Amino acid sequence: MNKTDPDRTVVLQALNSTELPDRSICGIHSTSDRIFGGEWTAIDEFPWTVALEFKHAWSSKNVGVKCGGSLINKRFVLTAAHCIQSGEFELIHVRLGEWNLTSNPDCLLCDPVQIVNITEKISHPDYNRLTKSNDIALLRLERDIEYTDFIRPICLPPENSSAPKEGTELAVSGWGATEDGSTKSAVKIKVSVPIISNETCNKTLHNIQSTQLCAGGVSGRDACQGNSGGPLVNSFVGTVEGRVQWYQEGIVSHGIRCGLVGYPGIYTRVSSYISWILHVIETK
């Protein structure tokens, strides 16, 4: 079993934007901070994780959750550009506060899942479908979201901050959905994946850019157990009574095969795009 301990070396500076939540609000959930390989989350764990629901582009048939994302403030969801530029599927709405895709609400005392339409899909202008470079996008929701125990925003890192050390265990959460269209789990799951340095990663995958991160390459522990477009997060000792909080290091982008030993998954590095994120959320 694998455990992600809070990184006590991380000092997460607040970003200079009134559009982002205060550090006392973001990156907090109510339950255990232990992350294992491919197990169910508790209902209120990783409450920033968002399910993206699609339909066939040529019909009105709902095909379910195909990608994930993360709530970064009351109006915007962060995801991968490849999730919204598929020719086969069309994104119709997001599901917030989701845990079990087959029930709503998920428990007797749980709030109903919030199903929210999208008014604008904004891919990074330099996204490349072939290389998956700049694989990042923002979704503007049709209304502001109210935070609850089951819906909270994730913290964002300072711009161009250093990547975690090789071997650091980070967490991915989601419903096991990938861009090939298969939903692996009805219940939100979590998995820990070790960071692989770009230098090491380039020996097997090649052409890894400074705006990307590698993680995984361990049998049975990969981003396919989370969501394509979903968040890769790291924990730190926060400002709220010294409790563990989380911030987003990466966005699930692509890889060779799920859980293939020696072949880590590739993630978009969020800290490389802070200026672009702030520009979008402050001008839209």
Helix count?
A: 3
Mean pLDDT score, rounded? 84
Q: Mind describing the biggest β-sheet?
A: 6 strands, antiparallel, barrel
The succession of helices and strands, N to C, reads EEEEHEEEEEHEEEEH
Specify the structural class. Answer: mainly beta
Looking across the biggest beta sheet, what order are the strands in?
8-9-10-13-12-11
Helix content: under 10%
Uncertain parts: 32-36, 178-183
What does the radius of gyration come to?
A: 17 Å
Q: Per the principal axes of the C-alpha atoms, what is the gross shape?
A: globular
Q: What fraction of residues sit in β-strands? A: 25-35%
Number of strands: 13
Give the CA-CA distance, first to last residue: 43 Å
Can you put this structure into words, describing what you see?
- This protein is mainly beta.
- It contains 3 helices and 13 strands.
- The strands form 2 sheets. The chain has a 6-stranded antiparallel beta barrel with strand order 8-9-10-13-12-11.
- The longest helix has 10 residues.
- The termini are far apart.
- About 4% of the residues have low confidence.
- Keywords: Disulfide bond, Hydrolase, Protease, Serine protease.
